[in-house]
Every structure is written in structure tokens, then in C-alpha cells.
Amino acid sequence: MFNPTISEEQSQLLETARKFAVERIIPVAHEYDETEKFPTELFREAWELGLMNVELPEAYGGLGLSTLDGCLIAEELGYGCAGIETSIMCNHLGALPLMVGGSEEQKDKWLGRLSEDFEFISYACSEPDAGSDVAGMKAKLTKKEGGGWILNGQKRWITNASHAGIYTGFATIDPALKHKGITAFVVDRNAKGVSVGKKEKKLGQRASDTADVLFEDVEIPDEQILGEPGKGFYIAMEVFDKSRPMIGACAAGLIRRCLDESCKYALERKTFGVPIGNHQAIQMILADMAISYEASRLMYMKAAWEVDAGKKRTLTSSLAKCFSADAAVKAATDAVQVFGGYGYTREYPVEKLYRDAKLLQIYEGTSQVQRMVIARGLLRGA
């Protein structure tokens, strides 16, 4: 039975992540947002502290922590900066196709690299014309005579693309087969024909790198195909079921940051001779933020618990991701409102929280797509 109680070990883990967020992330988050620079050394520190790759199995050199453990860390990092959290925790997303569909040899080789040294692995699924429509992808794997494959295609919106040493991705062996043609693969950044496009200029989460990955006649040996050819769609869906609770966790952290910043400001800022926190209009906003945080936290924890318990969790993961992302955008909007004109300036942190929150409703399946997944699950009796 789901129990939201945090163990002593998890409390220690939380404290490490919280300290890192408060002491290392928050003081520099504004600078990296303004300059749009990639804080490589900060990410290296996170790797050295054990805050990256937390769910890699111990058999491949990882910590072997649970999905719930990873989500608790993600909440704390999201409190510090959603963009920095995205790049740190995206290594988990990039590793998941190997964890879900890889052979023991593939896991030992590729996951072992992430444990041995500081390295990024990116998840290359979306395309210019196929984001949420995974089955509509055009990247093509063509079978070679005598074995192996040739990969051609373009992937878009790829987190950490410019800095990754490994890419896990998906391509079709036949576009006419739709989802039944999707095939998963893993490839080294240094493979001939692999290149990276320009870095995207984004509204928010600017410390996180986002760019295209281009594949031009890239040779993919059979041993770099994950699972069976044509079965990659199911790997992708399993990946999203396991990764979406972490988006909910990041959203919960951002909501909590909005609440803390708003409460602090509401006690300092005075109008009509009293702190604005004395006004009922502000109190209603703060109460709604607190409700959203508690609900988001419980939802991502339950979704993560179901992943760890091996339960069917597509519906729960989508519920957690959708609700928490929408709640984070509302909390950030309301935080700007609490700050008034000051909230609209870069001098105060809520302006950045407002911009960072929006992406939570878009990546790894938009809020609209989550609602479709939820509705279809309900109609199927999930």
C-alpha cells in the first residue's frame, strides 16, 4: 500500500539535495539564466555528490536508488532552478531506454560509462514534425546487407545535446508501419555522421542546453539496437511512464519555491499601512499555492511508488505530470501577481520562475497529450 512516509535514508538524501540547491544552485541560477551559459562545473559537482544518475543499477556502477528517491531529489533541485534540474535529471531519461530495453552487454557498456566518469547521455525522440506524435517520426534506419543499419534523420528539442557523449534515440524501419516500425538505438557522439545543430534560444530554463541532433549516414551496428527492431515504440512509452513522475517532482519544487518567495515578500511589502499578507486577496493566493504543492507532491510520490512497485502506472504518471505542471504555471503566475510590478522585473526571482514553469507543460508530452492519455485510460478501464 502506498505510504508517503519518508525514511531516514531518504531524509539524508533530501538534505544533501536541499543543501546543494540552496548553497550552490540558487546563488548562481540568475546569472546562468541571464547569460544562457551551460554550468558544466556545477553539473560535475552534482555528479560527484551522487545527485546525477541516481537510478542506475548497482550492477553497472550506479547507486541503485528508487524512482521515488530520484523524484525527491528532483523536487529539491527544481526548487533551486528548473533548468539546472532538467539537465541534471535528464541523464536519467537518456539512460532509461537502455534500462528498459537494453541487453546486459549494452547496459554494462553504456551505463557503465555514466558511472565511471562525468558524462551526459541525451534522449533523442522528438523531431521537427513529430513531437507528441511519436509514431509519425521520419528518422530512418535502413538495414545493410551483411548486418548493421544506416541511420538518417533529425532530432529536435534534445536536452543536453551539445554536451552529451551518448545518445539514445528512436527511428523507423518503415514509416508505413507507424508505431510498429519504431526502433530504439544507442550511438556515440563521436560516431561518423553525428552532429549537433545550433543551441535554441528559449523563454525559460536557459541554463539547460537544447539543440538538434543530426544523423547523416550513421552506421549503427546490430549490437547498438535496443530490443527488437520494430518494438521501440513500447520502449518509448515505458520510458515516459517511468520519467513523467520526475517532471511532477520538479513542478512541486517550483511551486514550493513560489510559495516561499511569495510568503516572504507578503510579510515585507506593505500597502495601506500593513503587510500585504494581511489582505485576504493575497492570503487566498498563498493558500492555493500550498494546496497545489501538497497535492502535486502526493501525486508524484504515488506515481513513483507505483513505478517502484512494478504496477501499471501510465494513468498515474500522466495524472501527476499534468496536474503538477499546470499547477506550477498557475503558482508562478500568481507569484508574479503577489509581487506586482516588481514581479515583472528580473530583479526578483519570480519572473524567472514564471518563465521556467511553462516548459513543464510541454516537454515529455504536453498537458493536452496527458489529458488524452488519461481519458483513454479511463475509457479502457485502466
From TrEMBL:
It holds the Pfam family Acyl-CoA_dh_1. Residues 123-218 form the Acyl-CoA oxidase/dehydrogenase middle domain. Residues 7-114 form the Acyl-CoA dehydrogenase/oxidase N-terminal domain. Keywords: FAD, Flavoprotein, Oxidoreductase. Residues 230-379 form the Acyl-CoA dehydrogenase/oxidase C-terminal domain. Its cofactor is FAD. It comes from the Bacteria. Gene3D superfamilies: Acyl-CoA dehydrogenase/oxidase, N-terminal domain, Butyryl-CoA Dehydrogenase, subunit A, domain 2, Butyryl-CoA Dehydrogenase, subunit A, domain 3. GO terms for molecular function: acyl-CoA dehydrogenase activity; flavin adenine dinucleotide binding. Belongs to the acyl-CoA dehydrogenase family. This is Acyl-CoA dehydrogenase.
